[in-house]
Amino acid sequence: MTKQDRVLIFDTTLRDGEQSPGATMSHNEKLEIAGMLDEMGVDIIEAGFPIASEGDFKAVSEIASNTKNAQVCGLSRAIYKDIDRCWEAVKGGVNPRIHTFIGTSPQHRAIPNLSMDEMIDRIHDTVSHARNLCPNVQWSPMDATRTEEDYLCRTVETAIKAGASTINIPDTVGYTAPSESADIIRMLLERVPGADQVIFATHCHNDLGMATANALAAITGGARQIECTINGLGERAGNTALEEVVMALRVRNDIMPFKTMVDSTKLMNISRRVATVSGFQVQYNKAIVGKNAFAHESGIHQDGMLKSADTFEIMRPEDIGLSETNLVMGKHSGRAALRSKLKDLGYDLGDNQLKDVFVRFKALADRKKEVYDDDLLALVSDEGTNAANDTIQIKSLEVICGTEGPQTASLVLIIDKDEHKHKAIGDGPVDAVFKAIQALFPHQAQLQLYQVHAVTEGTDAQATVSVRMEENGKIVTGQSADTDTVVASAKAYVNALNKLLVRREKNAPT
Ligand code: KIV
Ligand code: ZN
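^ thats the input. predicted complex w/ 3-methyl-2-oxobutanoic acid below
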């Protein structure tokens, strides 16, 4: 394989993706996602922004030392102490990478209040500093696509001379169209001395819905690294979706003859896992990993599909790791069958964890006739909620609702090992439950989002509930699943509060 036909996949789910308000992941969740990304074959994992917090630093350094194949990268501003901290975090990894950036467009230049010449000096000094620490340095002119062409060329030339081996061209505000995305890379390759010695990367945001098209166009213009996130997670409308570029390069290899090393059969599992831990559900009609991406409901489509799958399918469900039938088990299924099914779904559980999930699986199978893959995934994801070491736990909940009202919730919470009871009236059962929780555990956090999804079809389906809360600029998302929507709502709310308490502890002055 030559340099010309290989495209590097740089995943930034744990950095740019996690930057999306409310998508905060726990330390263990980050480690788990990084492990899945490595196993799937991404080339570079951007694991976080080490200077941003102790938590980010710890996550990046642990991911760097645990990752077997991928390069692990950390982000840093064009500031020496950021770069030093970043190096401290990544240096234990295989082929670690420092990624440093500065905003070069007129809009972004105003922020550090540097003249154009002063910024050139800053780029030279900070990239040289990073290069003295680490042989693998990536540099990004933030908002490159709105930077004046001549100036962009000067900045890129400076970074290359100072030792950057990857030049990333971010479309920070998602403004660019595909033809421009290709042209900008082509222009840099033609005009900048030394450009043929480095790899150009493309980093697109989806504000106008063009992130995937822009990333692929940049490849045709000469870029050889795509920066992307699972499910397109990211601030505002998100980033280029990894699953979309990987599958587009595979399915349309006839016109885009480039290869990635990503094992596409792992896409579905990682997509589900990222949706769960980030609290950002995948829209049903999302390309590749949406629930409807392979569903053929209209009569004409079904008829065509029965005659020949390629009538309407340009890829097979198995290509992304979707099994043909996902009806799994019922109450007579045993522990070995559960273990093997969970393994297929990407979960290799230890004996104790399996024991616990098995008990909960049996309880679910008693309530629900058919247990599907998605039910099992919801069950495993719910593992961590109402855990024994949480400060706030639900002991019992009873709700009265119906046409006569008033809707009433009688709730018993264990808070710091003490039992507290309250009965609240609300505008509907969920409102009553939330009011009871607020009365038992008074707090100032604002509810930003309350979302319910049915995991499968049928009135006995489990509901997954996401509750997003904000306190002093810190956003957390709590989640839970249950066949009883009101119970799932209570558990999700309490899960969010427990996460907030952890965040408070982390941010408390020592
Ligand atoms: O969108 C952007 O410009 C970024 C940079 C920090 C690379 O995420
Ligand atoms: Zn970005």
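The pocket of zinc ion (ligand 2) is lined by residues 16, 170, 172, 203, 205 (CB under 6 Å).
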